[in-house]
Amino acid sequence: MEVCQSSNTVVDGAGDHVECLIPAQKLAQRVGELAKTISADYADKPLLVVGVLHGAYVFMADLVRTLTIPVRCGFVMVSSYENDTVTSGRVKLRLDLTQAVEGEHLLLVDDIVDTGVSIAWLIDHLKQKSPASVRLCVLLDKAARRRAPVKIDYVGFEIPDRFVVGYGIDCAGRHRELPYVGYVLTDQQS
Fold it and tell me: Where do the structural domains in the chain lie, given as residue ranges?
């Protein structure tokens, strides 16, 4: 495993022990690879990149800056977790797109797909707006927890069934600032 900082486990200001899963260097490399593929796939099509707030904002920013094609950006926000680590199964639309998307090619960018409940709901919601296409790009795929079928067009990394944080992903509002993806160790694990 590559080192994330000075050691693989970091103790943050809240006293949480965060174990490195994907170092910053690997994240940057994979974002570049995804951007190259997406740029080729949309070379002759105008693209609207739609980020799912809040978790995807860091990934989306890095991805958009690495694309070699012109894009427009928009954001949506859904919730099904509230402040828990397990989905409630009920999806709430907190922020809808403000742009008209009829006939547009949409690239939905999310941080992680685990159960698939929220993203499947969101894809259906966006398709009702009559875009030319909707594709999904996710940083992390946690397929072991899938409850709803979801087609992921661009995947950064497949990960084990662990609750991850960092690189924009949080746990009750903490750890978004970490430059890598890690998981919080429980007292029994640290």
Answer: 27-158
Distance CA 19, CA 140 (A): 16
Between CA 171 and CA 72, with CA 115 as vertex, the angle to 5 degrees is: 75
Report whether pLDDT(55) > 80. Answer: yes
Please give the average per-residue pLDDT across 18-34, as a whole number.
97
Residue 161: active-site member? no
**Confidence bin at 5 (pLDDT 50/70/90):** low
Calculate the CA 123 to chain-centre distance. Answer: 14
CB 138 within 8 A of CB 108: no
SS (H, E, C) 138-189: EEEECHHHCCCCCCCCEEEEECCCCCEEECCECECCECCCCCCEEEEECCCC
User: pTM here?
Assistant: 0.89
The number of beta carbons lying within 10 Å of the beta carbon of residue 18 is 27
Grouping H, G, I as helix, E, B as strand and the rest as coil, residue 90 is: coil
The Cα diameter of the chain in Å comes to 53
- Lookup: tokens for 151: 């087609």
Distance, in Å, from the CA atom of 75 to the CA atom of 169, rounded to the nearest integer, reads 16
Catalytic, out of 62, 110, 114, 141? 114
Q: Class of 27-158 per CATH? A: alpha beta
Q: Coil, helix or strand for 20?
A: strand
Select the more confidently predicted residue: 79 or 84: 79
